[in-house]
Protein: Alpha-tubulin
Organism: Reticulomyxa filosa
Amino acid sequence: MATTIWEQYCKEHRVDLDGTLKSRRIRGLERVRINKDKEFERVDEEKEKEKEKEKTDESPAKQRSEVTEATVFFQHITGNDRFVPRSVLVDLESSVIDEVRASSFGALFNANMLVNGKEDAANNYARGHYTVGQSIAPLVMERVRKQVEGSDRCQGFIFNCAVGGGTGSGIESLFM
C-alpha cells in the first residue's frame, strides 16, 4: 500500500525514484503562500525570481523553504539535491518493510524511517494494540517526532493504514 501511495505522490510532484526532481515547476499547480494577513495568495514566479536576484544576503533557511512545492510531502536534502518522503512506514512484520526496501522505491525512502517489528500481530487487534504494538510504539513516536522537527511548519498527519488485522487496526489505534 505504501509504495502505491508514494508512487502517486512522486508522479504529482515530479520526483524520480532516486529522489531527484524532474522539474522545478509542477505541471497544473500554482505556487501559493500565506501572506501577513494569514490568507493564501498566488506567487508570481517572475517577480520572485527578480526579488531573489536583487537580494544577495538571503539566508540558506529561506532558500531551502522556497525550493519547490514538493517539500510538502518530501524533505529536500541539500547536500545531494535529493527529495526524501516525509513519512514513517511501520509494520509489525519485517517482511512487509523488507519488500519496500527491495522495491524500486527502496532508494527513495530514508532507511531510518522504515520501522518494523520482529513478529506480526497475527491478524489480532489485541496483539497489535496491547502486546507487540506496545513494544514498537516508542520507536515509532521517536521517528515521527524527528519528521516533525525536520519540517518548517507541520500542518497535520496523513495516516494510510489497513483497518483490518493487528497492525492495521491495533497499532494504528495507539497513534491516533
